[in-house]
Automatic annotation (TrEMBL):
Protein known as: EAL domain-containing protein
Span of domain EAL: 24-277
Superkingdom of the organism of origin: Bacteria
Source organism of this protein record: Shewanella electrica
Amino acid sequence: YSAKKSAEHIMFYDSSMSEQAEHRLKLLGELRHAQNLGQFSLYYQPIVKLSDGAVAGAEALLRWQKTPSEMLEASDFVALLEETGLIVSVGNWVLEQACKQAAAWREQHSPDFVISVNVSPMQLEHLDFPMQVEQVLASTQLPPQALMLEITESALLMHPQQARITLAKLRTMGIQVAIDDFGTGFSSLSRLGHMPIDSLKIDGEFARELQHQRGQALCQAIIQLSQALGLHFVAEGIETMQQKEQLLAMGDGLAQGFLFGYPLHAQQFSLTHFHPHIIQRVN
Ligand code: C2E
Ligand code: MG
Ligand code: MG
Ligand code: MG
C-alpha cells in the first residue's frame, strides 16, 4: 500500500514537473518573438529625495505585454532573457527608449532628471558596451550625467576585473554607476572600495527588516559605509512612512518604493509626478 502511495506521489510530482518544463518552453518561444511584435514596454518608478520627497529621477523597468490582458513584470521573465542571450538586444532597446524619454522629460519638466537603467552582466561583457552607450547618448541628446546605469552586486562578483575597467570607462564619459540590490550578494568590501561607482542601491530586503533592531543596525551600517566611501545611496522598496522616517534619521539620500510611487507607463508617470495638479482637479 505504501509503495503504491509513494508511486502515486512520484507520478504526481513528475507530471507537475513536466508541466512546468512545458510552460517554460512555451514562454521561451513567445519571448523570442516579443521584441519583433513590439510587446515590450518600459514602466518608470520615481526616485525621490528622502528629505522632501522631490522627484530626482526614475528607474526604467521592463514590462512584457504577452497578451492584451496579460502583462508580465521584469521579475517574471528577465532571467529567461538572460539565459537565452536575448537580454543583449532587448537591453539595447531599453537603453535607447529610456534615454529618449528622459531627454524629453528634462526638456519639458525637469532639467535635472536622472534616468536609471538596469544593465545585465551579459551587456557589460561586450567590450563595445561603453561605445554603444555613447552612441545612444548622442542620438537621444541626453547628457551623460543624466544617465545612471545599475549593475547588480552579483554581476560585479562574476567578472570583477573586466567590470571595473568597463565601469571606469563609463564614468570617464560622465555616466553615473550604481550597484543594485546592494547587501544581498556578499561583495568583498575591499573590492567595493576600489570600484568606480557613484551610488549604492540598498536592497528592499533591508527596508522590510527595519521593524527589527537587527535590520536597523544593518541599514545604519550600509548608510555609514556609503558615506565613508563618498557614495550616494538609494534605499529601495520603501513602502511605509515609518521606514522613510527611520532612514532619513540615518542619513540624507534618495529612496524608491511604493510609498512614493508605483512603476507607471510614461504618460501616467508624467501626469502623476509632473502634473499632479491635473490629477487633483480630476479628483
Ligand atoms: P530592481 O532593479 O531591484 O528593481 C526593483 C524591483 O522592485 C522592480 O520589480 C519594482 O517593481 C519592485 N519594487 C519597487 N518598489 C517596490 C516596493 O516598494 N515594494 C516591493 N515589494 N517591490 C518594489 P520588477 O520591475 O519586477 O523588476 C525586477 C528586476 O528585474 C529588477 O530589480 C531588475 O534587476 C530587473 N530588471 C528590470 N528591468 C530590467 C531591464 O530593462 N534590464 C535588465 N537587465 N534587468 C531589468
Ligand atoms: Mg534596478
Ligand atoms: Mg534594485
Ligand atoms: Mg532589488
